[in-house]
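OP here, attaching both records as promised.
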Amino acid sequence: MAGERDGPTAAIVVDPDGLVSGWSEGGRLLLGWTAEETVGRPVTDLLAGPPPPGFPESDGTAPDHAGPIPLRHRNGSTVDAVVTRQPLSGGDGRPLGHVVTVQRWGRRPVIADRAFEQCPFALGVYDPELRFLWINASSGRVIAHSEEQVLGKKYREVLPEFDRSLFPERDDKPYTDKLAEVARTGVPARLITVFQPRGSDYANAWATSIWPVRDPEGRVRAVANWGFDMSAEYWARQRLLMLNEAGGGIGRTLDVIGTARELATTPVPGFVDLVTVDLFDEVLRGEEPPLPPALTPGETIELSRAAQHSARDDTDRAPGHPLPVSHAPGSVAARCMATGRSTVQLAAEPGPGGEWAFGPGLAADPAHWPPGNPLIDESIAAEGLTCRITVPVRARGALLGVVAFSRSERPEAFTADDLILAEELTAKAAIAIDNARRYSRERATALTLQRSLLPQRLTSPEALEVASRYLPGGTGTEVGGDWFDVIPLSGARVALVVGDVVGHGLHASASMGRLRTAVRTLADVDLPPDELLTHLDDLVIHLSSDLQPASRFQPTGEFGATCLYTVYDPVSRRFALASAGHPLPLIISPDGTRTPVSVQPGPPLGIGGLPFEATELDLPEGSLLALYTDGLVGNRERDVDHGIAELLRVLSHSDTSLESLSDTVMDTMLPEDRTDDAALLLARTHALDPRHVADWDVEPDPSQVPRARKFALDQLDNWGLEEASFVTELVVSELVTNAIRYGEPPIRLRLIRDTSLICEVSDASSTAPHLRRARAYDEGGRGLLLVAQLTQGWGTRHTTEGKTIWCAQTLGQPEPR
């Protein structure tokens, strides 16, 4: 059989002169010429065109293995043939010519044709116009046509469905166009073709190759293809791709409803046509879900539809508007949630032989199904569905809800592999939903803690008009440690503070509360800004050491912060400030120009060992101060310098109220997808009326005490504050006496009328007085105790020149300025 041919072989005897001297019957069958017509004629007369190079040779014969060579058939057609020769010799060794054998080019042994015919791969050959020249039996089964039915017909006539792409969203070329492209360009192609065989409701995936068939001159004479069914491998790969997409696409938002929407949209339309995600209300609120023992198959379960996505309408439920849904007792969803097991519902019965009509190559064997699946439920057809998978949403032992994957547009039923895919998708989403729920709870707790630690209502001192804003980061970020404060100080002064704690979450909020309390405590001591930051730096270092783990298995917290501390004096209009790694304030003069701040921020708190630099500025009345955190001016799309320039541009509209200006700043500066919290504190300065301040130099002589009392009483008469005369006379007498007795000159008495009446006595000594308990026969020790009991507050303020003892009395409504 190996030598069997499927076509005749011509044997021609050519004499040394190149004339035909013998002709076989095979020559007649192959070329149509008889022996009488060819014997005695030159062998070159058989050629259909010009002799190829070397034909005939000098001896007048054809060369060995010359082919394919076009030969002339008796009917005028051309036969491509392979020509070979063997020398012919007589008994005495004298050359008698050659024996030339001629075979049709391209013909194979019959066993080779049978191998191609019986190949399990689909094979086909087409001319450049895509007319069928040959197909094997496997290809005929795929296209549901025999070779006799398609020979000579164009590919598009036989298979019009291949003129469109099954996946237009991928911008794939139709298979017919790919065949034509190979025929036109001569460039081979390999691709995976997904199509629906005739008579089947299921799409198959085929690995195919297309290549050009060329003649000896390199011209494309035909195009061939082959393919094999790789549906099982293809759909398994699609499932892995979908799981990979789900891994990167589900759980990006740290938002429960956003994660539910990601679960609903990921499998549509590649896997199913409709997905619904129903969750407990407690999950949506960030609370703990109900315990599974509270759920029984016999009771109605109330959920909320957190997400829904359909391929038919290409719509999804808007986030933030979950709709209530009820799952009746005994329903598939109720049973799934009560038992914790998934259920597959099919609307169709098995085929006549009991087999399921699943797609080829897929896991349709009932042995692959878990117990109780699949469930034949013709009722889902009334919903327009062909099949549905219901999966409980469980994470860390808690039941969060239920998700349903449904098919309606495609006829193929789910397989056991599809159930595994649905459960994997749900498991990935369940962890993400539970993470989002836990994050929402922690974020709400941290935000509540932080807001409780921030000033609930800013004081409104006469020295400043203030407004503030704080916004936490977006829902995908934890609460940070930004904070601010407005602290009234002695002498009608006001401290403005803003800071930022490193990190996010509960730890940052608690650390922020510690720092704010510490700053208020240090501010009560009336320290200058640079000294206050030095003490605050020491405190942060001590707090950081407290966070060091007792063992290597105990987690540590990160504690560092920046802080800007400023003090404004409405009497002198002096503005003092110092920074610990925090952005400096922006100061806008009443004429709209920026007042530069010539000081370098010091190191962040917690570094230790480095000094902080303080500076003072004279501010005109009506200056605008802007204190802020870096979350306001810096983000992923804008660096800090550009952010500060933009903030200055917005602050130039300072003629508006501070409340309106604060809203404008936050709306303009912060993007919707902000990743950090931001704090803003705006203040407009006022100057205290000089008529509300009176001071007098006191000689260091006890005889000056009565004169100091008289000076104070006369000033109260001028201000119309006679009701405060008694207390003021006693306070002035005590403070001036102490300054003369224990202090050093120069001594100065100052009265300030603000929302309270402030009495200050300054001297050059740095020794601070303190309260002590006087015994029954002591002649002194009761003065400061008397001052503390008669006034609403008193204290000591150290300066570079010495100290100032002050006390304040509450007054009624101040006169309008």
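Record two, same layout:
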Amino acid sequence: MAFDRDLQPTAAIRGNLQFTHSGLVTATYFISPLGYGLRKASDKFDVKMAHHALINHLPNGSLLLGIQARLNTLDVLSKMVEGVDLDECEDYADEVVSSYERVRSIVPQTRIYLLSIPVGAANAGSISTLSRMWRGSTTTIDATALSRAELDAYQDKADEILSRIGGDFDPTPVPAALFQWLWEHYLSRGAAGDPIAPTRAGTLDDATAAVFRSAALDEGAQADHKNRLRPSFVPVVKVVQPDFEFMPSYQSMLTPHSFPYAGMTFPGGSEFLNVLEGLGNVTVDWGIRVSTRSADQVLKHNETSLRRLGEQMDQRDQEVSFAQNTLMSKAQMLGEYNQHFEVNGAESEVSFTTVVAVGGASRDITMDAVNTLKRRYKRFQIDLTAPVGAQVDLWSMLIPGSPPRRAFDDYAHIVPSDMWAGFVPFITSQIGDDSGPVIGVNLMSGNFEPIHFGIMEAALHDLSASFAVTGELGSGKSYFLKLIAVLVHDMGGQFLAIDRSQVGEWEHFATSIDDAVIIDLANPTVSLDPLRLFDPRIAGERTLDSLLPLLDLSPTSGAGAAASNLLTPRGIAEHRIRSLLDMFQVVRRLSDDPQYGPEYADLAARMGTVVDRVPVLFDPRLPTLRLDASATVVRSHHLALPSAEELTTPHLYARLPLTKRLGTALYELVGVAAREAFLTDNGRFGLLVGDEAHHFTQTQVGSSVTSDFSRDGRKHLAAIGLASHDPAADFQGAAHNLIPNRFVFRQRDETLARNSLEWLGVDLEEAPFLLQVLREETSPPVGPGRSVPEERRGEMFMRDALNRIGRGKVLGPARVDRAAAITSTPGAMRALDRRV
């Protein structure tokens, strides 16, 4: 057995600086992984270049770590409430409280990325650091006795190294408490009692070796077989802590035995650390210890190796064997390797040792995971081995500051730095924002991390909060729109949604909100008269925008010019026009006046066809629409609206019947009213929701509304949320390119699925399999009734504000009453009514 004093090298810690018993000083940093996931190959090459710069400038003995850790449920909830006044938002406080049990039951995990670099040696005594490391001598470091100048010198050295690496990975100093957590995590890897990682600097700025608890490392788990005559040769380490003997951890250290002879293709064939995610019941950590040699050193070494090969070939010149062919093959490979460094002078040679640590609560669980990993790695043509007798040494390699051991060299591999960069160890499949409400979980990372969507926080940070959704009928688009709307409401914002459904799904949803306002445009209780609705400075222009398309008039036609003249500020004042009904009466009076031309008679005739049909525009007794309620739902199910084809085809649009023109005009007016109400600096977040996107995006007025929200919403705490079946038709143009947050739900039609993924940013030539994933493996309907199982509902693809693309599952509200209210299935609504 091995004990912690043999394996824990730390003598003292000051912040992120570690002083070891051998005299080595290291600096450790959190690393922000780069977005990877489903991004295009060009983006992935940028990630590779960042890793190339990293490896070329790391000092020898640097340690890269990827540690799987449990997410602190309270940290998740803290991110949910950032920027929200819970005293003012009681509904959201209830949502956060309800989220606690759900997040805890999911047991989300994450991967913490660390970089530990040597920055010098502590001068303690006359014995050199190298001598102490060689002899195994130890030294006691008094952290409190270190002067500020000494600490600054080590920190300056670390800063110099980080400066050469660049800022792609945003290295952040770890708190001193992380070293203690890391040790305890290693001791309990995969077993109960694994502590939660400290990810923020705490009050503990320094520590000594006394904080590291002791444990016994039993290689082969010999204690489990006390009656056996022969020792166990199972490649497993049983870790037992004195205070937790009843919760041992069984761990196995894996390392690549060989890599593919022909190399590994990037991207897609070299990211071998990605396969570690998604293993249940175990914890999997990885570590890579690296050292580099410059191109000049490599070339000199190659010359020496070539001379030795020549000598061996001369010695075996007369020998009848296959040795000559083997030596010739080695010489050819050495020549190719040498040419690589001659051509690429900025290259370096990387010697690296990789350890994959698998830990579980029992030996069987751990070994099952080990065998699963070995099968996975066959896809990369990589043979994993768990060396018997070297398990404890390899276990110690993941400890920052650990002195070199023979096993590190025994299982090292040598590759050029550009090939090593293709391993891209510091990458993530994370999607979503850093804070905000939890809308779902990440399905691509394998760790089920919560997906935060900080729609209101984005606007506060001068980012666009607008989003768009696509998917087939029943895939979850409307459910998702209502989820975001209710979250905006609960966080103190307001929303306006246009409900086109015959069953009134948004009306049903709004009944769960105390101060919601429901408006039916066919049976109006409010007026959308633009002359009464908008400020007099802009009322005339807004009226023309809606009136001319409604009456099928061109602004330059006779009747169109007459309307334009009347709706100028001078014309409005001169004729005392206060409403559309006033305008109609003025036009009719002027048409009888001989001094005015026939264009007024034409205008009067056209307006006469709609006056009695549209009380929502021409009844002055109705109060005007006021968008000061927290939730406003406008029902437009009785309006006749044109199809997307009728809106985009000129000859079909010219033949639109009056009823569809009326519907379009009213639809647009609602959007314009929301724009005027929400795109103002009133200090309140406003969300406009359009489930039938083509009515906003394919008309001139609707396109203008969409453009204003997507361009200027961030300036005025506002956003627009749109949904469509076909993004290729409805989400085109500069305005839609400014909508960063995109969601794609199930789409079984091949053409629409292809359009959806391309709109998301996926290159289907590089990843054609994603088309099948979207069509067949995203919330798939199964069984006799072709229904989607509860656990598969809400699956989707997502592109976030940082252009990261991944897969997730929408969870819906954690509050039971909210979850029931946003269910859009009519049958579910009736069942709910019967229960009530």
